[in-house]
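Example 470.
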Amino acid sequence: MHAHEAGALHADVGQPVPGWLSVPNDVNALLPQLWATGVARQPDGELAVAGVAVSRIAEQFGTPAYVVDEADLRARARGFRTAFEASFPGGADVYYAGKAFLSTAVARWVLEEGLHLDVCTGGELAVALRAGVPGARIGMHGNNKSRAELVEAIEAGVGRVILDSFEEIETLAGLAGERGVRVPVLVRVTVGVEAHTHEYIATAHEDQKFGFSLAGGQAAEAVRRVLASPQLRLLGLHSHIGSQIFDDAGFEVSARRVIGLAARVRDVHGVELEELDLGGGFGIAYTSQDDPATPAEHASRLAEIVEHECRGFGLGVPRVCVEPGRAIAGPAVFTLYRVGVVKTVELDAGARRSYVSVDGGMSDNIRTALYDASYSAALASRTSAAEPVLSRVVGKHCEAGDIVVKDEFLPGDLVAGDLLAVPGTGAYCRSMASNYNHVPRPPVVAVRDGQARLIVRGETIEDLLRLDVG
Ligand SMILES: *Cc1c(COP(=O)(O)O)cnc(C)c1O
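Predicted structure in complex with pyridoxal-5'-phosphate:
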């Protein structure tokens, strides 16, 4: 069984073409919701991003490469901030979830666009600090932070530590006490809502590793212990219900539950919490079947929900935080591959599928294999007048499951040497990349105003050999 981000929606077994996928009228057309805004075909048919042709990127940086449209990523970050600031007059902060994709350049971009930054390990914290992100703008997550990571967070002066266990409350208070500081914290509450792409499940309990259970009374106990600790300053409560969410109904249930706890905190302790963090998970389009809401739509819906729930409990609307990762980085990036071997496989009933091998695969995009995720693809180095054929884009790894794009119609004349682009790969691709089969991880190239530059160098075989000390 795959852990399925999209829930139980894929019941296409037995049909070579999934129900949602239709033969395109124009196989060269780019579906706008899948691509960064700076991506377009040039008059000669070749794909370009911010004015730079993909063949130039391939020549200069090699393939595969993750190609970021810097202006697009910045615009998505800014879009979240302005939308939430507009919908929450009492104040809102947007934390970019660095785990989606983090490099010093990206950390600086989101900082310049007025966002904060979430990290969840010492490694991510180090990147944020190297980028010059002020500690006060950083949130530190993690269900199993080490003592060393907590010390690093305190020494960086992070704006909040998101507490995840009773052990951590004690350890952090102790470390803060030794240093004579008071650390701002949120309590992460598991609210019993699990959100998937087009559905959510609300249960009383949540069977997972993160946070303090609301139903089990652990969240209330965590709040009590934090309030009793002079070394910790409780800012508020945090919940995160899932990823690739399209429908705000899951947020409605989680907000009601977590605001209910805030009301009990007021009743029991006489403390009105300043902040409410609703987490991330805003969905993006990976294929033609996805139609995500805009940040403005999410913000106004969440504002309605939060205001309504706070009114119901007689609470003022707190400062609201959200933590989008995928929705900022995902659509701003495509992966540029070079086509190699192309095979046609005969399926049942005369159907055929073209297997298009590219020079990367599950080492640069594990999501298809890991989550059964769907992606799209387009011929990038030219247009084609050939008939679209049902295709599967596969990698070069020694696994039959090494699939990048499960189902897509691509031109029937694809040949070795063509460039292929897979959009929507900005989140959870480079950040989850591996060296499986000793394949070096690809570079990340940022393009802006006709200029392409490296922001993360690609690995070389030498890099990999250097770790092997014999
Ligand atoms: C992963 C994660 C996010 C970001 O999720 P996206 O789906 O990328 O928006 C935000 N907050 C927390 C706590 C997370 O674990």
